[in-house]
Amino acid sequence: MRMFVGSNLERRLAAGDFAVTAEVGPPRGPDPADVKKKAGILRGVADAYNVTDNQTAVVRMSSIAASKILLQEGLEPVMQIVCRDRNRIAIQSDLLGAWALGIRNVLCLSGDHQSAGAGGKLKGHPGAKNVYDIDSIQLISVVKGLRDGAVQEGGDSISPAAPFFIGAAWTPLGPPEKFRTIRLAKKINAGANFIQTQAVYDIKRFAEAVRRAEDMGLTDRAAILPGIIVPRSAGMLKYMNANVPGIEVPEEMIRRMKNAADPKIEGIEITLELIDAVKNLSGIKGVHLQAIEAEELLPDIIRSAGLLPRPRIY
Amino acid sequence: MIFAEWKPLDELIDKLKIHRKVLLVGCATCVAECAAGGEKEVETLAPLLRMALKKQDHSIEIITATLEKQCEWEFVEQLAQQVAEVDAIMSIACGIGVQALAERFDPVVVYPGVNTSALTIREEAGLWAARCAACGDCILGETFGYCPVARCAKSLLNGPCGGTRKDGKCEVNEEVDCVWNLIVERADERGRLESLSKFKKAKDWSNSSHGGPKRVIREDLRQ
Ligand code: SF4
Ligand code: SF4
Question: What's the fold here for domain A8-304?
Answer without folding.
Answer: TIM Barrel (3.20.20)
